[in-house]
Amino acid sequence: MSDAIKAKLEEFPVFARHMGVWEGTYTRMDARTGEILDRHRSRLTCKILEDGSYWQQNEYFWDDGKTEVKVFPGEFKDGALRFDNERLKGDAFEVDQNTIVLTWVNKHEPNVRYAEIITLESDTHRSRVWQHFESGEFAKITVIDERRVS
Fold first, then answer.
1. Which of 19, 35, 48, 88 is the most buried (most CB within 10 A)?
2. What is the residue range of 75's domain?
3. Residues 120, 22: contact at Cβ < 8 Å?
4. 115: CATH
5. What are the angstrom distances between the C-alpha of 112 and each of 6, 11, 107, 134, 141?
6. Tens digits of per-residue pLDDT, 11-66?
7. How far apart are CA 73 and CA 50, in angstroms?
């Protein structure tokens, strides 16, 4: 393990506990009606690279055979994990020993912003909740339940 990785793990202990591979289910709902809009399985790989930067790959799997892969590079800077890549811009902060709060905008959806809370219930189980705001209105919510697989 490089010195850069060790330093980041020490500086960001809650993020450090999230490193690894997580599998789970995303359920997206309409905030007004509660109607389920989408449900799919996921596999997320979170790691700190040799240079101390952050790298995350999300793989999504739908029952109809559709798949999608997204990569989210980031950097630890000024007490936060910062994202500014081709897909999104946002900031994630450790708020207590088990919780991270992330806010972001998808650069391809200029009228949409997201607020996410990530709770590490144990070293093998976490939950995440996204609030979707569209044109200033609370529009959707995504609930994610994940288990660490490695």
1. 48
2. 3-148
3. no
4. 2.40.128.20
5. 36, 31, 9, 4, 13
6. 999 999 999 999 999 999 999 999 999 999 999 999 999 999 999 999 999 999 99
7. 13
Show Cβ contacts of residue 104 under 8 Å, excluding neighbours closer than 6 positions. Answer: 83, 88, 89, 90, 91, 113, 114, 116
pTM: 0.94
Number of domains in the chain: 1
| Percent of the chain surpassing pLDDT 70 | 100
CA 119 to chain centre: 11
Q: Rounded to 10 degrees, what is the CA torsion of 17, 69, 140, 101?
A: 20
Burial of residue 111, with CB atoms counted within 10 A of its CB: 0-12 exposed, 13-18 middle, 19 or more buried: exposed
88 is written with which tokens? 């999104």
Task: Give the integer Cα–Cα distance in Å for 13 and 7.
Answer: 10
Joined together, the tokens standing for residue 33 give 């009606």
Q: Which residue has the tokens 């793990």?
A: 9
Contact between 82 and 75 (Cβ < 8 Å): yes
Structure tokens at 146: 């994940």
Q: Where are the alpha helices (DSSP H) in the chain?
A: 3-11, 13-17
